[in-house]
Each structure stands twice: as structure tokens, then as C-alpha cells.
Amino acid sequence: MNYPHPIIAREGWPFLTISVAAALLVTWLFGWSMAAALWIIALFVLQFFRDPARPIPGNAKSVLSPADGRIVAVEKVRDTWLNRDALKVSVFMNVFNVHSNRSPVDGTVTQRWYNPGKFVNADLDKASTENERNALHIKASANGADVTCVQVAGLIARRILCYVEAGTPLTRGQRYGFIRFGSRVDVYLPLDSRVLVTIGEKVSASSTVLAELA
To answer: Per the residue annotation, which of 62, 90, 128, 183 is the catalytic one?
Structure first.
């Protein structure tokens, strides 16, 4: 489950195969100059679907970033998934970030929800409530804390992939899903959690600690 593939995410293998095959074919038929644009596309696909292994810092109470990107929200909000007040930390992923999603905590998935929706820019806060999204309620092993992790589709992202269901155990940094082509992940934490990141900060999936559970 963690890394069942070397370096390039399995979700990208079909795209990479097609883009490289097209570039090779045009190069063979018409030469390098005519195929230059296709090779650029192939390189973009290659970098988009990279999925490197990452170190796992902190301890059992450390909440890790579920995605690469930039922090766009740190605020107290209403977690409508669990009907509670919570601290929300949001990570926005652009097309140049790794788009593999990884568990922020050790725990067990107790519930999963999927909501269809719009595809507005994931950098906007309304994306959390209006866009297509997939949410996991994870019961943290460390202290039983409730953590909600929500994959949010973006302006270009049109496919949220999630490979876990209710009852699935997760470890920090374990790969559980993927979002194709630009998106956002929201993490809802108990109010007594200590957030360690600020808006605008760049974070890396699994290797950046977002917060500490009480």
C-alpha cells in the first residue's frame, strides 16, 4: 500500500506510455523539430506523476502533511463531516507538485464520504465546500483523536482516487490516494491541536509536520 511502484506513480503509467509513444512516433516520422512539443508534454507528464518515498518525522501525535503544496488556510471552522468545530489546515497542490496523497496520522478509517461538485480553482476557500471531494474520518491511534482528511478536486483536476474504505488501518505517510492535475487537501483537527505551519508555507507530503495532537 505504501509504495507499490518505483518513483513514478502507477496512476501515471498509461499517460506516460502514450505521451512517450506519440513523441517517439512523430520523431521517427518527421524529426526532432516537429516532435519537440510532444517531448515537452512527455516531460511534464513524467514530473507530474513522480512519487518519491519520503522520510516520516515526528512521533505518533505528529500530524503529517497529506500532500505536497502550499498552505492556503489555517483557521477555526465547522467540520460538517463530523458536525464539530475544528481547526482546518489546507494544502493547495499546483500542477508541479507531487499529487500522491498520504495519511496524516496513524489510525483507522471509520468512515468515507464522496460528494460530487464543481471544479472551481482549488486555491479558493470555497473549493472546500463547493468542489467534488472525498473525505476520510480517521480515528487516530495515539489518543483517539478525530481527524478528517478531505481530497478536493480543482479547476483542472477531474479525478479523485481513493483506495481505502471504512475499517482500513493507516500508518503515517501511507499512500491512500491520488488526485490528477491540480487540487487541494483539507485536514480538520481537534481544537486543542497545536498547528505548526503558517499560510503561504510550502510543505511536503509525509515529511512536513502540520500539527501536534494534544
So the answer is: 183
